[in-house]
Give the backbone structure.
Amino acid sequence: MLALLLAALALHAPARAADAAFTQFIASLWPQAQAAGVSRETFERETRGLEPDYKLPDLALPGRPATGASAQAEFVQVPANYVKEATIARLAAEGQRLMQKHRAALDQIESRFGVPATMVLALWGRETDYGRYTSPHDTLRVVATQAYVGRRKEQYRDEFILALKILGDGAVTRKDFRSSWAGATGLTQFLPSEYYKHGVDLDGDGRVDIWHSVPDALASAAKQLADKGWQPGVRWAYEVRAPANADCTLGVPEVQKSIGEWLRAGFAPVQRLSAADQTQTASLLQPEGSYGPSFLTTKNYFVIKQYNFSDLYVLFVGHLSDRMVNPQRFATPWTASTQLRTKSVEAMQKHLARTGLYTDKIDGKAGMLTRAALGAYQKSAGLKVDCWPSEAVLQSMGAAR
């Protein structure tokens, strides 16, 4: 409540008053910083002149748009636009070159953590274009703002403290401590808490440097996957061709069968599967509902999803990893050319929630659970069941109110 009150004051009071309120909030965090081992000198130096950034997304500011950022994308990307073939091909070619350049470090990573070299390279490629992309924000300012008026204040209060600790430990200079709007930093994009949980000094120089040391950054990414349950020797997913009568509402993590069972149900593998492959437990993923490619996702798929919760992100990273050793594109092409606006998907989710078909977040993202609930609605309404958010289904829901 205090942070919201201060934010409300910041909207209507002079800038100096707003800065004073923010400064008071930051000062109140000193005891927590001290307990975490941050020196008073570091605290004073790094917070002097620090100001909030109210243009960041995911802020809870009274009277502002829900995202807090006018530049936030209004459309949900269709898979073909996100997993863009030209981008995948370019990153795969670069990944092959980097695999040779960093072969010694990647061999250590595979041996130590059981994560394939191609997978950590794919994470690096997706997150920062192999280091070519420079994050636009000052990390400390981001996590301070999110701790002050973000939607996840408690989490970001801890991230702010640990960001101070990173600076105090001399791991990186403030100038190089850049991040995304959510505070993810470094070549492979770690939150400060992830830096301390999963950071690895692979190059042996006595410090974990995920900003400049490729071996450290890739090893840290591998350790994060390993710590979250990565299973060595298991693929992230298998592309399959779905039978004509496939039920797209089964495409949720809770519906698990052995790959052999899925095959006996009519799903045809794109690549040859061994007997061991067929014993693995998998879930069905159909990013475009009944259209486009279908996948049987293993436990490792959901480990990558803990790195970034987007299904399209996991598809991008997994496919990029595969393409570094195999030039084969997805066997089934993407077909959707348009996607509903975020607000329209939110309206669908709210309707599905009211009818008891959906219990997850109302976030305007047509993920696994939203698509499955949409398919259940289509069954109940006598519509074509394709688990894909369309204007026709949205209109049907409007008529049903």
